[in-house]
Amino acid sequence: MERNEKTRALLAAFGCALAYLLAGKALTAVLPQVPEEAARMWAFVHRCAAAPIVEELVFRGAIQQLARPLGERQAVALQAVLFAVQHRGPAGMAYALVCGLVLGTIRSRTGSVWPGMLLHTLNNLLVFAAG
After folding, report:
1. Which of 32, 80, 93, 106 is deepest in the core (most CB within 10 A)?
2. Residue 113: is it exposed, middle or buried by C-beta count within 10 angstroms (0-12/13-18/19+)?
């Protein structure tokens, strides 16, 4: 495989992750403040529905696919690291890294992001319920 192809794959994957992070920051800046009585419901919708869907499409879908020229294992590892970096704090990053590796492996073996979306949603539901 040509070196330029691997470089393009890395740049595309990093660019996708950066775009995701910047889009999240922009949305936070422009969305109105949620009233306190609706905050828990908004947090539930965000963490248990929107985030798992979008994160699976971005990290296991786009980034993992863009990184495939590096090799399947390397693509799984790269998307997992980028997924972990966007989570806060060392403990959150470590947990997200493991989850990213598991979800990326599932994506690689099934060829679909749907099983990962389901597991990611279930994980976030359990974390949300635990509080």
Report:
1. 80
2. buried
Three-state DSSP state, 1: coil
Higher pLDDT, 34 or 57: 57
Q: Is 37 exposed, middle or buried (0-12, 13-18, 19+ CB in 10 A)?
A: exposed
68 membership: H or E segment, kind and range = none
- CA 49 → CA 8, 56, 120, distances in Å? 32, 11, 9
Mean pLDDT across the chain: 93
Q: Do the Cβ atoms of 79 and 13 come closer than 8 Å?
A: yes
Kindly indicate the confidence band of residue 1, based on its pLDDT and cuts at 50, 70 and 90. low
Q: What is the pTM of this model?
A: 0.90
